[in-house]
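Lab channel / #folding
Pinned by the channel admin:
"Please post every new chain as: sequence first, then the structure tokens as a reply. Keep commentary short and put observations after the output so the thread stays searchable."

First post following the new format, from NK:
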Amino acid sequence: MKQYKIIVLFMIIFSVLHFKNLHAQDFVKVNLTGNLNFDSNIQLSSYHPIVFTSIENETQGKKSLALAGVLSGILPGAGEFYAGRYLKAGIFFTVEAAAIATALIYTRKGDNQTNYFQNYANQHWSAVRYATWTINNLKYLNPNVDPTNYNVFVSNSSGTVVGVNWSELNRLESAIGGGYSHNLAPFGTQDYYEIIGKYPQFSHGWDTSNPNDSDFHILTQQFLLYAHARGLANSLYTTGNTAIIALFVNHFLSIFDAIWSASSYNRLIAVNLSVQDVNMANRSELISTLNLSYNF
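Reply from TO:
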């Protein structure tokens, strides 16, 4: 805005000096006789038309608001760069790059941490161990539940237990009720890896648990370490997701800012300086005009 005022002031001063010079050069003194017809012929024969030019300034071409918005929608900062707002363009682009880098880095860290705690659970937590402890302690958990009504274990041909019947185990958990508030999710699912390190009822599935404990609320060190490892993975994912949200916000803000910047850029000062030659009886007068407009 300040530079526009300077331009206007400079052009006004230039026009005044220019017009004075023109008037001094083009005024022709004519000796008249007093006879109207004769003096008119003298005046007309001595008059020479002056060619005047119009000085017009329009700082720069207007910017397309739609194009500015589309550019920033594709790459935040591009619309601001198009609108001539280079500092803001750099800020939006830097935020974009930082958000992308953060999202990629922390999502990768979250994946690595997830692989770590899932492998740890596969090595140290057993559904057979958990089901065995549950059946052995039914008299403390819910004495009204008869374990013979539930075919929980899966055995091989030699009678060795090699796994559990998930549907039967879930039916048993539902019958126990009380502190057994959750059913064991299918092996390998996200819920499976979450609940075995979140709810105390699953604490005796860890290989360092004491099978002689009668209270499922007793937590093993493995349970706590696993819960911490899983919590760390969630924190890493949260940071990555926050960065992704920041990407969308950065795009959204950049689009609107680019449109505003282009609109602001288009508020141009248009200055039009012109000269009109007014022919009088014995002289030529130069009349200057100034047209000033501000476009919103």
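NK: Residues 221-265 form the longest helix (45 residues).
TO: also worth noting, The radius of gyration is 44 Å.
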